[in-house]
Design goal:
Elements lengths: L3 H16 L7 H12 L4 E4 L6 H11 L4 E5 L7 H4 E6 L4 E6 L6 E5 L6 H13 L1 E4 L2 E4 L5 E6 L12 H4 L4 E3 L6 H12 L13 H10 L7 H13 L6 E3 L3 H17 L7 H5 L2 H5 L4 E2 L1 H5 L4 H9 L40 H7 L1
């Protein structure tokens, strides 16, 4: 008989394989997007147009049997264009709420930094509270709810950079990157053959996704790994190359995402490898380099890798190697690959209490 975590692993891989039918050569990005879904978080893509971000959002929603919507941000966009607004019903002459595109499961927000701060703040409430407040009334958003936002790192004219408070609301910051030649050839052939994302069939349901989100909360993080997370986050606050370190929210999001990584590998226990595989996506947008580091030409990724590699992984948990603290994965690339261990029984309350 399969355990719940084995069922989670199979469902996770089934969805990923379905999305990879149209998103070629980006299995790592697809996996991180799914981790964000099951960790109940949001993703910010910083990349140039035309790399498949919209297609990824639609492929995810179709695979999950969920709803999706897209918003193209412009400077003249109002908060109500995203959240919805109250209009007068001409029959009853009463105000009725007309939901905006945010009332969906997966919302793609294109060029979020072109929206004004007022519109960005309206989206922030949706991301943080999962509700929309209009005329003093709160309207709950559907479950699951995931925001995939994009911004172009090249064109900065006429943009409104996201404040630190809003950047911190995103679980991950990812880059799609250009595909390799073979992957781009598959994309070109698939488009010519009519293999559109609309042909992707659902392999799960929104209800099952919500149940899987609840399941990962039962994954255990040993105290040694919890302290490992805390030490990594704390290390970003003391390095002279970093002007602003990661906040406690980074520790929370790291632990949530690490639980999903473990469950997707068929385990009830989080290993240090799970944590290291997430360092780049979780922390890179939460730290700010000092002016001196910028003048030296240092990148956030390089500084983050150097700082976090000083923290030793705990012994006796998973496959952590004390002689090489960076062996489990790179904070720069986020390509750690945890190894499955035969842990099939769901931990009880005593086990969870002992681990924490």
């Amino acid at each position: 008989m399969e355990s719940e975590v084995d069922q989670f692993q199979k469902a996770f891989r089934r969805i990923a394989a379905n999305v990879n039918l149209v998103i070629h050569g980006k299995a790592d990005v697809v996996r991180m997007a799914l981790v964000a879904v099951f960790a109940d978080g949001h993703v910010l893509f910083e990349d140039v147009p035309g790399l498949g971000k919209s297609m990824l959002a639609r492929a995810l929603s179709n695979s999950m049997g969920a709803l999706s919507a897209r918003v193209q941000c412009t400077p003249d966009m109002l908060p109500g264009d995203i959240t919805g607004s109250s209009i007068i019903d001409m029959k009853t002459m009463q105000l009725q709420f007309k939901p905006g595109p945010v009332f969906t499961n997966i919302l793609l927000v294109d060029e979020i930094n072109r929206a004004t701060p007022k519109t960005q703040s309206a989206l922030l409430e949706c991301m943080a509270e999962r509700t929309v407040s209009v005329d003093g009334k709160s309207n709950a958003l559907p479950k699951p709810f995931l925001v995939l936002a994009t911004q172009n790192p090249v064109e900065q004219a006429g943009t409104f950079p996201l404040p630190e408070a809003q950047l911190d609301r995103f679980l991950f910051k990812l880059k799609m990157g250009y595909p390799d030649e073979d992957s781009e050839l598959l994309v070109m052939r698939g488009n010519a053959a009519g293999l559109e994302v609309d042909n992707i069939k659902a392999v799960t349901s929104a209800k099952e996704i919500t149940a899987m989100q609840q399941l990962v909360t039962h994954v255990v993080i040993p105290e040694a790994v919890e302290r490992y997370i805390l030490q990594i986050v704390a290390s970003t606050r003391t390095d002279p190359s970093i002007l602003l370190g990661a906040s406690p929210r980074a520790s929370i999001t790291l632990s949530k995402a690490a639980r999903v990584m473990a469950a997707s590998d068929g385990r009830w226990t989080v290993y240090p490898e799970d944590v290291r595989a997430l360092l780049g996506p979780v922390l890179a947008h939460r730290i700010m380099l000092s002016p001196e580091a910028v003048l030296r030409g240092e990148s956030v990724e390089d500084v983050l890798e150097r700082v976090t590699n000083r923290v030793r992984a705990p012994l006796g948990v998973g496959n952590a190697a004390p002689e090489n603290p960076g062996a489990a994965g790179s904070a720069k690339t986020g390509n750690g690959t945890p190894t499955k261990r035969p842990t099939t029984k769901r931990p009880g309350r005593r086990a969870k209490a002992a681990a924490s």
